[in-house]
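User: Fold this; tokens only.

Assistant: Input:
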Amino acid sequence: MKTFIMNRGLHILNLLNEVKKEHRLVMLLVLGWELITRFFSSPEISTGINQSVPIMIVIAIISFLIVLELIWWLLGRFWLRMGLVSIDSLVEGFKTLTVWEQVIIFWGSFALLLLACVGCLAAVL
């Protein structure tokens, strides 16, 4: 029995090494969803807690990551087809900016990602 569990665990680790980092995160969140469901299904633990709230938060995170991955895929697919400059030249241009301009771009990107995350959470809840 112990060797069966060890072999199964090694098989799962080999599968995890073959997928992208983003897909690993989504897979961990799906597994987390299953664990949260099982954890809150017992009546002793879930007394006084609405059981759907933790599951909805995990669903919101999963939907945010799926939307983020879809947008990144669309950007990569259509960027060069639209005749825009390459990503490498954009990175080189970003490095020539002053520090405060780089900070403003980072804060703007963070604010947009945070707004998208809050939108996914609001849509699920």
